[in-house]
Amino acid sequence: MGFDQSSPDDSSRRLLYADFFKAETTWAYIQTSEALILKHRLPLRYYVDSLRAFRFVQSRDSFWKKLNLRTDEAEPQWKQLLQSLGMEITYALSLQAKGKIERSYRWPQDRFVRTAAIEKLSTIEDIRQVLREEVHRYSHLQVHSTTGEIPGYRFKKGRNIGQSAITCPHG
Predict the structure, then answer these.
(1) Is 3 helix (H, G, I), strand (E, B) or coil?
(2) How many CB atoms lie within 10 A of CB 15?
(3) Strand 15-21 to 3-8 pairing
(4) pTM as predicted
(5) From CA 124, how far away is CA 5, in angstroms rounded?
(6) Where are the alpha helices (DSSP H) in the chain?
(7) Taking Cα atoms as reference points, which of 159, 153, 129 lies closest to residue 141?
(8) pLDDT at res. 91
(9) 36 Cβ contact partners less than 8 Å away, ≥ 6 residues apart
């Protein structure tokens, strides 16, 4: 099975995008960002960890040869692309911040592995159907334990009253 990629809205907790890819690549992250932007417009900021696709880290990314670049002096393609669209990138640097990012992945991983085993699913196409059903349930039917509201309702309400961090292009 491939790796999962999801993009939750920080305020509402709604999953704005989720899919499986055969490999974890920069191109997969670019495709994820494109799909999110085309459907929901431009987010003001991406909150990410320090994965290679998002950030150059000197001691991690340059051990094969001696480079004179320090952390963040090289810009990964994903970051270049989003910054060219005017988006900010914020990195989760503390353990608590990294945990906030990882929590959004915990529930789908648990649910999908269990469902795939019980239903004997073996292809990405099969598990994508489960993913779509779970994302719909999570975002539109289930009250979120932190916000006390259904994420899809909270997201829509935030956009209607101008409290969304997702803006239209060029304004």
Answers:
(1) strand
(2) 23
(3) antiparallel
(4) 0.69
(5) 13
(6) 26-40, 58-61, 77-84, 95-119, 124-140, 151-160
(7) 153
(8) 80
(9) 7, 16, 17, 43
CA distance 39 to 154: 17
- pLDDT, tens digit, for every residue of 18-48? 888 888 888 888 888 898 888 888 777 777 7
Q: Cα–Cα distance between 105 and 89 in angstroms, integer?
A: 19
Residue with tokens 């959004």: 104
pLDDT digits (tens, 9 = 90+) for 59-117: 665 555 566 666 666 788 888 888 898 888 888 777 676 666 666 667 667 777 788 88
Selected residue with higher pLDDT from 42 and 170: 42
Place of tokens 């239209």: 168
**Domains and their CATH numbers in the chain:** 3-167 (3.30.420.10)
Q: Based on C-alpha coordinates, what's the Rg of the chain?
A: 17
